[in-house]
From TrEMBL:
Start and end residues of each EAL domain: 24-276
Superkingdom to which the source organism belongs: Bacteria
The protein's name in its UniProt record: Diguanylate cyclase (GGDEF)-like protein/PAS domain S-box-containing protein
Organism: Metabacillus malikii
Residue span relative to the full protein: 464 to 739 of 739
Annotated transmembrane regions: none
């Protein structure tokens, strides 16, 4: 009996493994052509100023419009794109697309807002990154203060290299943000040396802010830390009014989350800009 269960367990395990593996291989193959087929799109999630209630920023979030599987979210393909090296070109497409879009909104005379773009590890370590950002800023004519690049703590493990890259990006005039703050394993010493503008509190801390006293205290501490270092704080994953009230009370600067809006299409976002 025990043997049989063991055997069954094994079979189920390999079935799942084979399924995951073949799905990955299929996605990997499809990913190779996705860029030239124009299958990527950006969705946009508003960032709201907690003091004024105004929409002052937006995060660009990539989605893959797969011809057979429909919309695929980044958690399913960014990792594969990193492993295959495809991420470099995909990431460049995101930066370019985001800048073109933001410039377009300014040309339509919407009030200027900051556009945040996520960098991947490979992209951050790629030696062409700084020149690429420079060329996109020049070619689109976007004022660089309206582009913010998001990195995570784990990308910046090589302190000297990261500092060098960030200083060059800073010299272009773009903003720098630490995404998912508090979830990486790095020491805090980089905070005083890196030329940063924003800390984004990871949504895992925000989620249980009203129930878990530890999360509440961590969030308060991050806000205080950020302000003492002259950084603005954005809370991500804000879903309820109670969470927003808490964050406001503790002087968190900006909010991003489902409470205000999920990431939305460019058309939906333009409606928000019109009515803001
Ligand atoms: P992230 O940069 O931390 O982005 C925030 C994620 O949280 C987004 O998921 C967003 O849809 C989700 N989110 C926002 N508000 C809420 C909320 O109130 N509740 C909950 N439960 N979730 C919320 P998404 O779009 O699936 O992206 C996942 C991750 O994929 C991003 O996390 C980022 O690390 C990565 N990613 C997205 N776009 C790009 C890109 O263009 N390039 C790279 N390299 N990575 C990207
Ligand atoms: Mg992000
Ligand atoms: Mg994040
Ligand atoms: Mg995240």
């Amino acid at each position: 009996q025990a043997k049989e269960q063991g055997k069954n367990g094994y079979v189920i395990y390999t079935d799942e493994l084979m399924h995951d593996l073949s799905e990955k291989i299929t996605l990997e193959a499809d990913l190779k052509n996705a860029l030239e087929n124009g299958e990527f799109i950006l969705h946009y999630q508003p960032q709201i100023c907690n003091k004024s209630g105004k929409l002052i920023g937006v995060e660009a979030l990539i989605r893959w419009n797969h011809p057979r599987q429909g919309l695929i979210y980044p958690d399913k393909f960014i990792q594969i794109a990193e492993e295959t090296g495809l991420i470099t070109h995909i990431g460049e497409w995101v930066i370019k697309q985001a800048c073109i879009q933001n410039k377009k909104w300014q040309d339509y005379h919407f009030e200027p807002i900051k556009m945040s773009v996520n960098l991947s590890t490979q992209q951050f370590l790629h030696r062409n990154l700084v020149d690429f950002v420079k060329s996109v800023i020049n070619n689109t004519g976007l004022d660089p203060q309206y582009l913010v690049l998001e990195i995570t703590e784990s990308m910046a493990m090589d302190f000297d290299h990261s500092l060098h890259v960030l200083q060059q990006l800073k010299a272009i005039g773009v903003g720098i943000s630490i995404d998912d703050f508090g979830t990486g394993y790095s020491s805090l010493s980089y905070l005083k040396k890196f030329p940063l503008d924003y800390l984004k509190i990871d949504k895992s801390f925000v989620r249980d802010i009203m129930e878990d006293i530890n999360d509440a205290n961590i969030v308060k501490a991050i806000i205080t830390l950020a302000h003492n270092l002259n950084l603005a704080v954005i809370a991500e994953g804000v879903e309820t009014q109670e969470q927003l009230d808490f964050l406001r009370k503790h002087e968190c600067d900006q909010t991003q989350g489902y409470l205000y809006s999920k990431p939305i299409t460019v058309e939906q976002f333009e409606n928000r800009l019109r009515n803001k």
